[in-house]
Fold this protein.
Amino acid sequence: MLHPDHYTRAAMDAEFHVQVEIDRVVLPSEVQGVAVVEGRVARVFRGDPALLTSNISFEVSAIREGARMPPSGVRWLIAEKLERAVAIEAYLNRNGYGGYEVARWQAFLIDAVTDTPARPFTEQDLVFR
């Protein structure tokens, strides 16, 4: 398990902070694994404003509800909740292949797109400053 500051710092250092209206989720066939989220950028809180309304896809770690979470630093999203989700807030970086990757599992399901971030991170969130 990583120290909480590693997750917070990853979010704070991410190139993009966005909310995405989810169009489609491709779940892993296994109990745990990588799910692909596809959707449209509905809010840009950090990063290039031109990303707004763009189609985007990225991977998140997903685990089936009730499955035992293995010891690791992974922050899992529950697959069944992800499958029904309408929006997700994520801290993203470019992956070097023209796409995006979530910064240290900093992606959170939200009930709806909001005008302000649902999960903001600041220096005050760091334990060790």
User: Anything to note?
Assistant: The helical segments are 4-13, 79-84.
